[in-house]
Amino acid sequence: MDVLDEELLRFWKALNKNNVLYIMVEGFATRFHGYYRNIDDLDMWLKDEWQNRKNLRAAFNELGYGDFASIETMQFIPGWTSFYAAGIELDIITEMIGVENLSFDDCYATAVRADLEASSFPFSTSTILSKTKKPLTALKTR
């Protein structure tokens, strides 16, 4: 999947419009930084707060994915609780293994921004990616 894919841009724009705080992480973020990596899903780190979950629910509903009340309370488990967004599997992560000493807000503040079609989308820095790759992959394959 390409970062300029229309459906993907529509997805990110809906997240931004609904004030969802997120960071793109793992494979897609790795590709964003210029490294080839075969990907079959999107991994998104979501700031785990009730209002942010409500905002995600609103974005999903706006995109026509459905109105899932459970988004507000469910436990997101990478590799197990997935949605389909922009035609690809979406793993939502609320806890990043490997960077427990950094908060979501710390990482969000340093996230690299992709400015595309008059919108800005946050991607994890390569430093954070290098710390989370092995632990998160192990969790997803358990």
Structural account:
The chain has about 140 residues and is an alpha+beta fold. It has helices at about 5-15, 25-30, 50-65, 105-110, 125-140; strands at about 20-25, 40-45, 80-85, 90-95, 110-115, 120-125. A hairpin with a 2-residue loop joins strand 3 (about 80-85) and strand 4. The chain starts with 5 loop residues before the first helix and ends with a helix. Residues about 135-140 have low confidence and may be disordered.
Task: Outline the fold blueprint.
Blueprint: H1 6-17, E1 22-25, H2 26-32, E2 41-46, H3 50-63, E3 82-85, E4 88-93, H4 104-110, E5 112-116, E6 119-123, H5 126-140
Parallel strand pairs: 2-4
Antiparallel strand pairs: 1-2, 3-4, 5-6
Helix pairs in contact: 1-3
Strand order of the largest sheet: 1-2-4-3
Total beta-strand segments = 6
Q: Could you name the CATH topology?
A: Beta Polymerase, domain 2
Low-confidence stretches: 134-142
Distance between the termini: 25 Å
Number of domains: 1
Q: Which CATH architecture is right? A: 2-Layer Sandwich
Which class do the helix and strand fractions yield? alpha+beta
Q: Tell me the helix content.
A: 25-40%
Largest sheet composition: 4 strands, mixed
State the helix count.
5
What fraction strand?
15-25%
**What are the secondary-structure elements, in order, as H or E?**
HEHEHEEHEEH
CATH class: Alpha Beta
Brief synopsis:
The protein has 142 residues and is of the alpha+beta class. It has five helices and six strands, in the order αβαβαββαββα.
Descriptive keywords:
single chain, 142 residues, alpha+beta, Beta Polymerase, domain 2, two-stranded antiparallel ribbon, 5 helices, globular, disordered C terminus
